[in-house]
Amino acid sequence: MKTFYQLLANTIISSVTNYTVWFAIIFFGYLQTQSVLVTSIMTGIYLVATAITGFWFGELVDKRKKKFLLLASGIFSLVMYSICFIIYLIVGADAFKDVSNPVLWIFIIVLLAGVIAGNIRTIVLPVLVDKDKLDKANGLVGTAGGIAFLIVSVISGFLVGLGGMYWVLILAIILILVSTAQLWFIQIPEREIIHTENEEKQNKRIDIKGTLKVISDIPGLRSLILFTTINNFLGGVYMSLLDAYGLSLVSVQVWGVLWGLLSCAFIVGGIIIAKKGLGKNPLKTIFMVNILIWIVSSLFTIQQSIVLLMVGMFIYLMFGPFIEAAEHTVIQKVVPQERLGRVFGFAQSIEQTASPITAFAIGPITQLIFIPLMTTGEGARLIGNWYGIGPSRGIALVFTITGLIGLLVTIIAYRSKFYTQLSKRYLESKNKVNENLE
Predict the structure, then answer these.
(1) DSSP collapsed to 3 states, 33-72
(2) Which of 335, 359, 375, 390 has a CA 20 to 30 Å removed from the CA of 49?
(3) Domain range spanning residue 36?
């Protein structure tokens, strides 16, 4: 656990770096172009890349030394951020105001490549956790993410307001150097890399077929991944439009500070999990929390109020770590160690596949349908007197509808047979581990 704590500290530094860049490019892109299409496309590019790289990252984690992968990730991000800094110095901030300017999209893609390289940590850390400390360790991961989120949320808005992407990139380069240097001195006592039969012959290709067989052999696991995929499909709406909605209510500096306050919710949720765990059946926790989150999501934009938005988002973000930690705990418990990285990578790829579809689609849909609907259209006439009218109310209506759909999907999944099947498998695996410990 000492090594795990050191890696958590290193992860906080790395996450601060990558989150700062991610937040900043979203803020910067929207403020420069004033277009929700840009923010939705950026989110879509990020999520597509995350989905594609998940398979590959999972294979690497199972077949390579974890420390080497973490170091390589940091060095790659450093190179990408340095390239972007040079581009920014050469062309200047004004070049990014035109959505059709190819320099804008080259800059965004290279920058996001550096951010995405850090995603390998989300697969490495769960693989290094001992099976008798899963839920609480996963809670600590959530707390670490919350701490990073807190720092980033406060500084990213101010950095963008102060000098566009200039100070953001300088800070990113410095922090990635620090995290990579610290990682060099961390000793990671890795387990022996286990290869299944004939796997040595397959080391140069991604063994999706073998991973699919492992998932199919565990009753209910495939359905859990599908359920999370649907959730991400709906969650892509919030990723694409939330910043645009928030920035319609307050300035970028205030929005950054508010995100700093909101990120405390991650910390609170992670601490609760680290102290109390996830209950006897983490799978049940996933559904109970989802029901709460989708109810809140359908209500926190029902009126144009920054206070209502903050309260709703705090609840949403506080319980978010419960869902991720519970899913990780279930997978860690039921999947064989030698396939754990690949299953995590596969799940990440599949689950993230849905969000880009939403991200690419919801921007145009909101811009062309819901914003006019709630500005001068039939929606403004029918419900505008109490719901409000204007572009921001069009975005709000999308959030309300998404929350109601998410609630319906969760209730249907909770009443399905896959919940019973996977719960049984989890409890059997948990009892087996406890017997071995005794």
Answers:
(1) HCCHHHHHHHHHHHHHHHHHHHHHHHHHHHHCCHHHHHHH
(2) 335
(3) 2-186+207-432
Whether the CA torsion 103, 104, 106, 110 is positive or negative: it is positive
Alpha carbons 287 and 254: distance in angstroms, whole number:
34
Q: What is the DSSP letter of 280?
A: S
- Between the CA of residue 385 and those of 203, 248, 300, 372, 396, what are the distances in Å? 63, 20, 18, 16, 15
What would the pLDDT profile of 56-107 be if each residue is shown by its tens digit?
777 787 777 888 888 998 999 999 999 999 999 998 777 788 888 888 889 9
- pTM metric for this prediction: 0.66
pLDDT value at residue 437: 46
Tens of pLDDT along 15-37?
A: 888 888 888 888 888 788 877 77
For residue 50, pLDDT beyond 80 = no
Dist. CA 28–CA 252, nearest whole Å: 9
Cα(167)–Cα(422) distance, integer angstroms: 48
Residue 87 lies in a domain: yes
Is residue 34 one of the residues assigned to a domain? Answer: yes
Residues 6+ apart with CB under 8 A from 83: 110
Q: At what angle do helices 282-297 and 221-247 cross, to 10 degrees?
A: 30
Residue 368: DSSP 8-state: I
| Calculated CA dihedral for residues 417, 418, 424, 427, nearest 10 degrees | -140
The span from the CA of 293 to the CA of 425, in Å, is 26
DSSP string, 401-413: HHHHHHHHHHHHH
> Is there a domain that residue 191 lies in?
no
Mean pLDDT of the chain: 79
pLDDT score, position 206: 56
Query: Which among 35, 37, 25, 154 has a CA at the least distance from the CA of 93?
Result: 25
What pLDDT, in 10s, does the model give residues 236-295? Answer: 787 778 888 888 888 877 887 787 788 778 778 878 887 787 778 888 888 898 899 899
pLDDT in the model for residue 84:
92
User: HSE on the CB side for 16, CA within 13 Å?
Assistant: 22
- Give the closest residue to 229 by CA, choosing from 350, 371, 115: 350
Q: CA 127, CA 341: separation in Å to the nearest integer?
A: 6
**Domain total in the chain:** 1
Q: Assign residue 311 the CATH number of its domain.
A: 1.20.1250.20
Distance CA 128, CA 122 (A): 11
Task: Report how far residue 272's alpha carbon sits from residue 142's, in angstroms, rounded to the nearest whole number.
Answer: 10
Q: Is 219 helix (H, G, I), strand (E, B) or coil?
A: coil
